[in-house]
Write a structure and sequence with these properties.
By secondary structure, the chain is of the alpha/beta class. Helices cover 47% and strands 7% of the residues.
Length: 297
């Protein structure tokens, strides 16, 4: 029995050692989405003028190539605003030529995306930002659990990466089957018990980013992206009023340039959408041209 326990113990130790070796020496060489975004930003901190932040609304549904020179798409799918705020605290002071931070505020994002509430248990978001961007989750004891998972169990996560291009953009081709149901919104996501607390938290992060941008002479532009007609059928006036109040409250001391494109008449065609709330590459081109014109980028 003693020999059996020893064999198990040494087997576990050997496995952990192999896993850690893979994490340190093998996986960093894999050409992953997160590595590419981190490495590009580190290498071009002095060159970037327009920085796209946020989530899949900008990673997938806005073409940075059409916005002008010196643009980079640093958005990542499913990223909560907490990590945008922390990343900008880290990088804006290091980017002397940065003139614009462009950020998407989706219709339901402020109500449910906070990483601090059980409605958003996307642990992979925390692991990715700790491992590849050096930004830690800010609550204990979870941050220590995420550290352990990040550096001692991340092989399966690292094998996935998007087909992003040289500016960090991953275009969405065509339209999904049952597209009008995919990434739609339900009223329960707007009305759930933690919604008010999450909106307040979102507003504070937005205000912090506005202050940071103002401090370094950077324009902070926020847009609510357009959504399809099937999505808009589930959008209520209360939710829209909350979005506008977030901007009003967050910009009391520092400026935020904002435009709401949610129901914009130029984005009503179904052919522009990959799913209910994300533009495909045709819509992404159209949206980029529109933002460039509206904000004189």
């Amino acid at each position: 029995m003693k020999r059996f326990v020893q064999d198990i113990f040494f087997g576990v130790v050997a496995f952990v050692c192999l896993l850690m070796a893979a994490e340190c020496f093998v996986l960093p060489k894999v050409n992953k989405e997160y590595n590419r975004k981190h490495d590009y930003l580190e290498a071009h901190k002095n060159d970037i003028s327009i920085l796209l932040m946020g989530n899949s609304y900008f990673e997938n549904s806005l073409n940075p190539h059409l916005l002008g020179d010196s643009v980079y798409d640093f958005a990542l799918s499913s990223r909560p605003i907490y990590y945008d705020c922390e990343l900008l605290k880290k990088y804006i002071p290091q980017m002397p030529n940065l003139s614009v931070v462009l950020f998407p505020m989706g219709y339901k994002m402020p109500f449910w995306e906070s990483p601090h509430y059980p409605e958003n248990p996307n642990i992979n978001v925390h692991l990715v930002h700790e491992k590849y961007f050096g930004v830690w989750y800010d609550r204990t004891p979870e941050k220590y659990l995420y550290w352990f998972l990040t550096y001692h169990g991340g092989i399966h996560r690292d094998m996935y990466y998007e087909q992003q291009d040289s500016l960090g953009y991953t275009k969405l081709q065509g339209q999904l089957p049952d597209w009008s149901l995919m990434h739609n919104v339900e009223q329960s996501e707007i009305d759930h018990p933690d919604a008010k607390e999450q909106v307040a938290e979102y507003t504070n992060y937005m205000a912090t980013i506005a202050e940071l941008c103002s401090q370094y002479g950077v324009r902070f532009i926020v847009v609510t992206p357009p959504c399809s007609n099937p999505y808009l059928a589930n959008v209520g006036p209360y939710g829209v009023s909350v979005l506008h109040k977030i901007i009003s409250d967050a910009s009391k001391n520092y400026p935020i340039e904002y435009h709401d494109y949610l129901r914009d008449k130029d984005f009503r065609a179904d052919s522009l959408y990959y799913n209910a709330s994300h533009l495909n590459y045709i819509g992404a081109d159209k949206f980029a041209k529109r933002l460039k014109k509206d904000f004189e980028l």
